[in-house]
DNA sequence: AGTACCACCTGACGGC
DNA sequence: TGCCGTCAGGTGGTAC
């Protein structure tokens, strides 16, 4: 689930509900969710402080605290960030909870525990250390063009490589390629300018639109691939049918008629 | 450099 | 009902 649009939804939720409020208490029932961070460090960074700002880089969500540190959240494959009112029950796989002064709380739920929580001193240093490429929504056309020209392999794995572009995962790489009418195996370096322009434009449009619709497969346009990710499903845009195949070990979906190659 | 495969972890689902 | 393989939207390591 959590690719750039999902994480952007979480960021907006965190910003809308938690900024400016003192954090009363922090719970992390499962310490293995903490990355390079002790419970004590997490508590020191948050308790009694307020979150003063949020930012997102790719699939990483960061929140600055009034103490000067940064809270980092990553959502793995099954993570989500919820805001619950006092009295609302926490979900089954709650991994971290920030109790806020108004009685509400921010909850990280993550069934498979592939996400993590961390505290770092500096956001820029963190992003650099993670070897993340430019965020997919801040990537200019010349940046995208130059990145892809320097690649040897196929387009889909290039889009998903977080050190090249940060934020695109398996589902949205398929969605972007569908709208850009490019086959997932298209050579990244071999694109002409028309295709590159289309790819850049569709990358921005798909990710922004998805985030604005809550990254909810039920709410994206019916003409998108996302609600039709099933081998043999009718292409939502033409006479073709959706095909599934394995690429870099994961299921890739595309329409052979819309995306020749 | 790119790719294939495995591991991490937990669960859902289908076949027998 | 139980067992087994397969699959799942992320990432990181290893081996070609």
Name a few traits of the molecule:
single chain, 261 residues, 4-stranded antiparallel sheet, 12 strands, 29% helix, 23% strand, globular, DNA-binding
Write up what this structure looks like.
The chain is of the alpha+beta class and 261 residues long. It is 29% helix and 23% strand. It is built from seven helices and twelve strands. The chain has helices spanning 4-18, 39-46, 123-129, 141-149, 155-160, 170-180, 193-212; strands at residues 23-27, 51-57, 60-65, 70-74, 79-84, 94-100, 105-110, 116-120, 134-135, 165-166, 243-247, 250-254. The strands form four sheets. A four-stranded antiparallel sheet has the order 1-6-7-5, with helices on one face. A four-stranded antiparallel sheet has the order 2-3-4-8, with helices on both faces. It has a two-stranded parallel sheet with strand order 9-10. Helix 1 (4-18) runs parallel beside helix 7 (193-212) and helix 6 packs across helix 7 (193-212). The chain starts with a helix and ends in a 7-residue tail after the last strand. The structure holds a DNA duplex (16 and 16 nucleotides).
Q: Pick out the low-confidence regions.
A: none
Mean pLDDT: 96
Largest sheet: 4 strands, antiparallel
Order of helices and strands: HEHEEEEEEEHEHHEHHEE
State the strand order across the main sheet: 1-6-7-5
